[in-house]
Known about the structure:
Oligomer: single chain
Order of helices and strands: EEEEEEEEEEEH
Bound molecules: zinc ion
CATH superfamily: Glucose Permease (Domain IIA)
Number of helices: 1
Organism: Streptomyces hazeniae
Amino acid sequence: MRASPPAGTWWEVKDGRTTSGYNQYFPGYQFGCRGDQWHKGVDVGAPTGSRSYAWGRGRVVGRGDDPGGYNRRIQVYFPSVNMSLTLGHLLDGSELRVGTSFTRNTVWAKVGTKADGLNHRHIHFRAARGNHGASPIGPCEDMNPFILWDALGLPS
Ligand SMILES: [Zn+2]
């Protein structure tokens, strides 16, 4: 049985809203696959410090900081569906540590700040098949995060 998500979330981000969709076209965008112009992930914007809740049962397999890229980030793995998710642009120190197990609705991080050079505050969700461990999901191996969302049985 699945616990209900907290009220007032979108993509399980408190006060969140989608600010960029998967494979949205951006002229001049460089963060995709080999400098292409497609956004490889989904951005959910929300105020700094807004909580992001886990989509299902899994564990944290990677954590780091990529200035100019994901910034503060974690990678999480969901064994039941053999899929991974990278969450980027997190609030420094808010993110779960590597090895931490979580269940549905565990707070796994909070929304970061614009101090990292972002034009707006958001979490970037990037999904892939398999367990990517400590490596963030690369620009050429992503899939639409909705595939993971659906596989976990979350409401569409
Ligand atoms: Zn993004």
